[in-house]
Amino acid sequence: MIDIHTHILPMVDDGSKNLKESLELLHQELNNGVNEVMLTPHQNQRNLDKKRIQFAFEEFVKAVDLPIKLYLGCELMYYEGVLEAVKKGLVQTLNDSKYILIEFSTIYETNISDIVYELNIMGYCPIVAHIEKYGYLKTEDYKAIHANGGFIQINADSFSIGTYYKRIKKLLKMELVDFIASDCHNLQKRNVDFSTAKTIIKKKFPNSYDKLFNKTLF
Asked: Domains of the chain by range and CATH?
């Protein structure tokens, strides 16, 4: 099982604050049945320094002695010039592949399907991060994102939040969910816990269980 959205890489964003916390989060991943972890620190308009996170990743890998595969990516915050940044190679794609994990404003309505389309014709495979948080999206928007070459990721902890779960249930019924990820940040409130998500999907959406929890990207 792969967790494609995490903030485990220490001391680079609002995620893990030190090596000890990062190692404990990796232990949580293993305890949840995860054996591949994508480290996806934030990249945004003010921070497109790939070399900084690549160096942090290389140093972190040296300190990890666990039976788990680690890959480097980023969670890219959409802004007006983001397509140009991707063209210039400033964005850290997932394991240097064509997959890009991209998030959008939860407040300002954004035409996500159009942006997904633009990235797709550029040759990339955009994964829309925690799509359940974008309350302005409608059913036709979810369908358009998939139709335009996008993938949909939801957060495991959102299964415990009423408003989000209603949207998640709709997406699962339409079989539009491609990834469930932890989006973990720390050991306090935003840690690694797939248990609720796994229980609900196994019980209510069993046909989607293997697709979501027994998959890899690489």
From this structure: 2-213 (3.20.20.140)
Model confidence over 198-208: pLDDT tens digits?
999 999 999 99
DSSP string of 137-176? --HHHHHHHHHTT-EEEEEGGGGGSHHHHHHHHHHHHTT-
pLDDT tens digits, 86-127: 999 999 999 999 999 999 999 999 999 999 999 999 999 999
pLDDT of residue 141: 98
Question: In whole angstroms, how far apart are CA 187 and each of 15, 16, 27, 45, 113?
Answer: 10, 8, 11, 28, 34
- Segment (H or E) for 101: strand 99-103
Structure tokens at 214: 């027994």
